[in-house]
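Comment thread on ticket #2218

A.B. wrote:
> Attaching the input chain for the structure job we discussed in standup.
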Amino acid sequence: MHMFRLLLTVALLGVPLAATAGPQPPTGYNPATWNGGPRVRPADNRSAAILLDGIRRSETFRTMVEALEQRDVIVYVQIQQALKGRLAGGLTWLSATKRFRYVRIGISPDLRGDAAIATLGHELKHALEVASEASIVDERSLSAHYKQVGISMRRHSIGWDTEAARQTGDDVRRDLASSGLRAVESVRDFDPDNWHLLYRRVRGVL
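C.D. wrote:
> Ran it. Output below, let me know if you need it in another format.
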């Protein structure tokens, strides 16, 4: 049983992360060959730890991250106080530019360990669903798409879910249970500006 509901919602929760200007190349990148940088970007040390643990310990999770790296959707991940006591996690639309689309995944601060990783896995599946649908370019088209393919959440009039995301969360849980690796609660001295280096190292591409 899930401790909280998981959903995709088209409403913005809290203050959006700055995404409308587009990602800028970090120090050390060649602007001529830069592809937009990491597609999945944590905003704090706990969300960074959840993301890195998912990559290290779950093949299902890692496969989704690698798939997102080939798409035009940039995903911001953060521990979101607004979800405390209400929801495990949610994905919200942020904005779009000519080159990229932006979404945010919020994770409840109530979650720890494997529950947090499985929740992020569930929401990353939603991000991949968005990335796979070129017609989603704003809140209206996001809502229209999930009205067609999603499962309405009765307790949340603006919330949607999918069977694929639910199954993904379950698959991540199974991976974690058999991984033999322990979860890490936070990334010490997390620095968003240097995230690309740690992210690539854990993915084995640095």
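A.B. wrote:
> Thanks. Noting for the ticket: Helices lie at 45-57, 59-68, 113-131, 139-149, 163-179, 195-203.
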